[in-house]
Amino acid sequence: MSFKGRDVVSIRDFDRKDIDQVLTTAKLMEPLTKAGSELLKGRISANIFYEPSTRTRMSFEAAMLRLGGNCINITEPRTSSIDKGESLSDTLRVVENYSDLIVLRHPLEGSAKLAADLASIPVINAGSGSEEHPTQALLDLYTIWREKGKLDGTKIAILGDLRYGRTAHSLAYALAHYDTELFFVSPRTLRMRREVLEEVGSRIKVSETTDISTTLPNIDILYVTRIQKERFPDLEEYQKVRGAYRITLETLREAKTGLIVMHPLPRADEIALDVDRTSFARYFRETWYGMVVRMALLALVLGVV
Ligand code: NCD
Q1: CATH of the domain spanning 134-287, picked from 3.30.70.20, 3.40.50.720, 3.40.50.1370, 3.40.50.280
Q2: Ligand 1 center to residue 167 CA distance, Å?
Q3: H/E segment holding residue 183
Q4: Residues 185-204: pLDDT tens digits?
Q5: Which of 162, 169, 265, 286 to mutate to test the pocket of ligand 1 (most atoms within 8 A of CB)?
Q6: Global pTM exceeds 0.85
Q7: For an engineered disulfide with 63, which of 58, 89, 184, 294 has Cβ 3.0 to 4.6 Å away?
Q8: What is the pLDDT of residues 123-146, one digit of tens each?
């Protein structure tokens, strides 16, 4: 399917061919990060963020600027009319007059779908509650493809908060298009959502465990996630699982050579700082890949590539 004018709401709307197209376009974008480009000259994207963000918002913004476009932003709802009680739909009806594309992060599941239905311009989901984070999944796949040279034939453990972690959901759906094997590692109370497990498990081999040490020798990629404190309805429940996993040099002793450790960031304390300087660490590199993938997505959706 052509990307031009398309919304990016759920990674489930993308088949393998679509995902491959984003990855190959991202590769073409890499040299433009230095050389600069005028591909999106005269275009404006509107970044509307109702939740905190560093990487997603800044990399979308940097991607637009590196392609010669411009951005307008709501990054602090308290300084916009949202603080006066303006609804999401009214905000969208206004912002679509100012821009060519909307990038939206919102705490409610279903928010990106609603926005895409309402807006007359393309909407890219930059995180919809605990549900999905499709552009993070694309950059995670890009990181694996660039660092391992392939997606097919890889074994990946997704560790941490698989219940509330939207990046974990989108990543699992995306990897299910490839010949991969997934290990879901989490505390019992934060197991992978049933609907994700069922859909992904019908396509590829998946298993669930609470134990990372027995899983580690089998995998090529360890994808670590943060326990999503802000999503817990009850902070006492959070206290029971905080610090459930901590990846240290000691943990990684059992790792295969060539294992890579990824993380969407921000990290709390689930990866020890001294892992950063090992050859396992790819989480900061991943943020650069994120910008490149977002350059590709913007160019594809705005129909210039
Ligand atoms: C993630 C998110 O917002 O879901 N961050 C990101 O976009 N890289 C992960 C998280 O907050 O834990």
Answers
A1: 3.40.50.1370
A2: 7
A3: strand 181-185
A4: 999 999 999 999 999 999 99
A5: 265
A6: yes
A7: 294
A8: 999 999 999 999 999 999 999 999
